[in-house]
Amino acid sequence: MDPHELLLSDHKTLRTQAADLRAAIKTGPKVLTEKLVSFQKVIQKHFKLEDIYYRVLDDGKRLEDRGLVHQLRNDHAAVVFTLESLAIRLRKNGVNEDWLTRFNNLMDVFLPHLDQEEEALFPIGKKTLSTGEQKTIIEKMDASE
Q1: Domain boundaries defined on the chain
Q2: What CATH class is the domain 3-144?
Q3: What pTM was computed for the model?
């Protein structure tokens, strides 16, 4: 399998989960908490796979757009941190205006992050990565699970 296909498949799942999570805000704290925890786990696993992809793709800092690589890595950190913060705030205070603002800010980073990978990074990866490098990425991804 091509690593891009695997990551794109994950993106589809993540987009669905993000929509489900948004809908769960109206269902009450128990369902919302369950969906938030599940979303956190899936994102963490996905980001771990993307980090493998990023490392091989940008080996030797060969990507010209240094800003893109840094931004995508920073997005990962921001999303993980914000999800943890949302989980804590949900347990302490439930859904309130502050929580909703933070949740919307998260989605305003996360969903465009997926778009940017799909529209900017993955096309570069498809052109740049050799068949051997793609195989190495898949092997490392498989070993990380």
Answers
A1: 3-144
A2: mainly alpha
A3: 0.93
